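Q: Fold this one first, please.
A: Sequence and structure below.
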Amino acid sequence: MEEFTPRRGWSNKHLQTVRARLRPPRIDLPAALMRLVDLGDGDRLAVFLHEGQSDRPLVLLVHGLGGSAESEYVRWTAQGMLEAGFPVARVDLRGAGTSGDYSVGMYHGGKTQDLRAVIEELAAPTAVVGFSLGGNATIKLLGEHTPGVVAGVSVSAPLDLAVGAEHLHRRAGGWYEKFLVGRLKQEVLRPGARYTPEERQAVVAARTIVEFDNAITAPRHGWRDAAQYYAVNSSIRFLPEVEVPLLVLHSRDDPMVPVGPYDAVDWSALPNVECILTDHGGHVGFHGREPQPWYVPTAVGFLEGALR
């Protein structure tokens, strides 16, 4: 796996993070078959399936906060995996993207039971690749010894959700936080979502990630408050339990997810986990000299080696 070198003129952490918005990429994918996965409580998830070689495990791609199966980082990774022969499944989490038309609930950073339902439904050896909050869920899923999961890759995951929320609030003038809260409000207030007038009022009033999670995420899932939600679901707790190959990618200059929790981990004590910390790359950026971001060939190469 080659070291990451930023694209010339794009080494700035904010440019790395928002490059796909400044220069929207064209990512051509073959036609996908949409499959609805029943979650057992009336909600269903939309999963978009692309065929690959029959001897390769399925790669399940998990988007981040405010994202979807159509997010450019998901599509970029799908393209790279398909080129390498892996079959791919792009999932819209509960309440996000197309799944918003088939579910009244919401996802969160540790809702791994939904991912397990997808893996059980597709009934294939599965490698999971998650981005940002989806990366947190990916690490947690692997640490829970989920049957059928053979490997994983996490990109720009907030290992400690409480530290990540505080970082988002204090950095870049809160711009990234405001953007994410806006996206979350759109998901929760979408037509068809079932929330009480009091819950909707609390969501509308939320100005920070912590306020949003206190208003809806925590009480909806049985936690006392956002602090308890973060404590229960932070993936840093699950790293020592991972028993299959896992690659963790993160940039030290990520403006949205702090590097502190990464530096606090003794990676040498985790025999199944490989961590690569780069100096540059931003948040789910890693735009180098190639058309695809660096994390795409890096994830492909890791899975090819780990599953050989």
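Q: Good. Now the second chain.
A: Here it is, same layout.
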Amino acid sequence: MNALNLVIDFNNMVMRALHTCQTTDDVKIKNFDKQEECDAFMRKTVTDICFVLRAFNPDRVIFACDAKFPWRTDLYKNLDINYKGNREKDLEKNWTNIFKVMDDLKGILANKGFVVTDLENTEADDLAALWKDVILNKQQDNMIYVSSDKDWSQLVCLDDNKHYCIGYNPVINNRGTRKMFVDEKTHKWLNSTDDVDFFMNGFNKAKSKLCDIVRTNSKISVEVIDPQRVLLDKVMCGDDGDNVPAFYEYYKGGRKTRVTPTKAAALFETLNIHSIDDLVSVDADFTLKEALESVMKTTIDIDFGSRLLRQRRMVELKSDLFPKRIVDNFYKHAESVANVGFGNFAEIKMDTILKGTSYEYKGSKNRYNSIFADIDLSKYNKTPALF
């Protein structure tokens, strides 16, 4: 089909809007105690969403939502670590009202014909990976994910049938652009010329549309990343942002020593590792143990095989590593919304989505601009973009 599916990180988009929603035409945002503040927050969020929809005008739009109690929490029970527990709420904000706006928005989007995927114990990251499997493998279509969460970058790919998964970070950077992430294979393909005959055989609609979007939008910059290296770094080094521990860490002289990106790079070079499959194929309890002990300069007494599996389940977005009930629930949901979410979004506006709801804007012409901070993925940059 070569249809373009936009999968949006719902919570990521909402939280960005929350932290940039400070002043509107007639409302001063303080702590979201007042209904008018919540109304402004809703309209700011929907304005940001519409900005992205107009930029890509996809064939289908899907929102992936975070569950309150993610299944990965159970992996941390024996580690004395609270999964994502280092994320503190601003206690001055009325979170009850904020969460109500979020729940209301999910209902509004679903009623307007969008796909809203919100499943028990399942994070948006997992949903993005599962939707990628459906979109690229089952539907033979293409996917652009919208998130500033760098975890999602491991999904970027171009399959053998020329179906792509590309990332888009809606956060504007210090150069005044928003980054689109592709891997090296996709980048070369997008810059290649297809053989098209008189009858348009060989024409790839999705490729042509994507190239047109990038070439005509000076605010989008393409960056080539290595998604496998992103994943490998997370498996070995952990992630402080999500409270994910490193593959190995110990205390020396009262100071914590852990696998760092530099140590991980030395390990990968020693073992000639370029992908997660390369790492998995290494004899964990012998080859990996010997190489890591050399890099860490200490004797390591752990079960390397089980430790590697633990790290992968914490950070890798692959359905084989998810609990079976999570996968089963998702596929039931995907089948139930198989014909939902399609439309023309070229001219969509905030008023279109909120019309007929209690959040509909009834004041003067609104000025809810998209204002984002930058999320830097430059350390994974492989080559400069050609367009």
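Q: Anything worth noting on the second one?
A: Residues 53 and 345 are 6 Å apart (CA to CA).
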